[in-house]
Design brief:
InterPro entries: SocA_Panacea. This protein has 176 residues and is mainly alpha-helical. It has eight helices and five strands, in the order αβαββαββααααα.
Length: 176
């Protein structure tokens, strides 16, 4: 399995886990905002993202690019993810498989669970407003959001920001 396939597989099981915590189905806006806030928590506490997905500053808040591509494929009836998800309606998705927990660490589960509890009962507008944080407002519409900005918006201190920046430099050096 190559790096992209691993990333896709990890994202599938991450989404399945969140959907399971939400009773099996959710509208994608709520699903993506819960994921965003879980990612932000994990960055602040542990200095790493959960999904390695890129978030884009869309009109109604941050949207994870790869997760959105998966959702679009499901919505359009594509076979690639048919064993994992089904489209419920125009804006909702249902998990039809169990998540493979080997793809999620304890720290990731903790942050996801916290995000689900904090955000599952919020309305569309409340989630949109909450996600319009400094990282979102400092990014041009439809452009990729900076991981450092996401961490800062979540309250990361200067030491954690330095740690994240150092890790980004290491990742860049590995692929040069």
């Amino acid at each position: 399995m190559n790096a992209l396939e691993e990333k896709i597989e990890g994202t599938i099981h991450l989404l399945l886990y969140i959907l399971k915590k939400l009773g099996g189905r959710s509208d994608v806006h709520k699903l993506f905002k819960i994921l965003y806030f879980a990612e932000q928590k994990h960055l602040v506490k542990y200095g790493a993202t959960i999904s390695q997905d890129q978030y884009h500053a869309m009109k109604n808040g941050p949207v994870p690019s790869l997760a959105y591509d998966i959702y679009k494929s499901v919505k359009e009836g594509g076979a690639s993810y048919a064993r994992y998800f089904t489209a419920v309606d125009r804006f909702s998705i249902e998990g039809i498989s169990e998540p493979d927990m080997d793809y999620l660490s304890e720290s990731e589960l903790k942050c996801i669970d916290e995000s689900v509890l904090e955000n599952k009962n919020l309305t569309f507008n409340a989630l949109t407003d909450k996600s319009h944080d400094e990282a979102w407002t400092s990014t041009a519409r439809d452009k990729e959001m900076d991981v450092i900005a996401i961490a800062k918006a979540g309250g990361a201190d200067s030491h954690m920001i330095q740690y994240i920046e150092d890790n980004q430099l290491i990742q860049v050096a590995r692929f040069e």
